[in-house]
Write a structure and sequence with these properties.
By secondary structure, the protein is an alpha+beta fold. It has 2 domains: about 90 residues, no CATH class; about 60 residues, no CATH class. The protein contains 4 helices and 10 strands. The protein is globular, with a radius of gyration of 19 Å. The two termini are about 15 Å apart. The C terminus is likely disordered.
Length: about 150
């Protein structure tokens, strides 16, 4: 990878919930991180709708737990039903987790991303396009170009 300025230690493809958290953790550990993301802004559709107390603990380590918990709600249980409506398994989640948070949360992921992205501000690159085709390069918000092998199209 040809980096736009000074090089990076780690490149991440995708800036969804996992990419955001990975970028935050690696950045906190002192690594220079670049993220390649197809979408020019945060993807507006749900992903990662269930978070358990261990995920909240990891988010806490990057300073994002408070905002994430504020934008979600504790799950008190879940019933898995047979197609005729008979309860096959009833899960009781109305308990505290081992890490001090509620055991399970539900969330609408697009509402959570502002909280989690505030903790990770890597160099985020969006793929450039030419004539409707995706190239093997990306451009930062300031216009710098990075290439994923080979030469970038101009």
């Amino acid at each position: 990878m040809k980096a736009p300025t000074g090089g990076f230690d780690v490149g991440i493809v995708g800036y969804g919930p996992v990419g955001q958290l990975t970028a935050a953790l690696l950045g906190r550990a002192g690594h220079r991180v670049v993220v390649f993301e197809h979408w020019p802004s945060l993807f507006p559709y749900p992903k990662a709708g269930h978070l358990d107390d261990e995920v909240i603990r990891i988010l806490q380590s990057v300073g994002a737990a408070g905002g994430v918990v504020a934008g979600s709600w504790p799950m008190t249980g879940c019933d898995l039903l047979h197609r005729e409506g008979k309860v096959l398994v009833a899960l009781d989640w109305n308990v505290g987790g081992r890490s001090g948070w509620h055991s399970d949360y539900s969330a609408y992921q697009p509402n959570l991303e502002p909280s989690s992205t505030a903790s990770s501000r890597p160099n985020r690159l969006s793929p450039s396009t030419r004539a409707g085709r995706r190239s093997r390069s990306a451009r930062t918000a300031s216009g710098q170009r990075s290439t994923l092998g080979g030469k970038a199209r101009r």
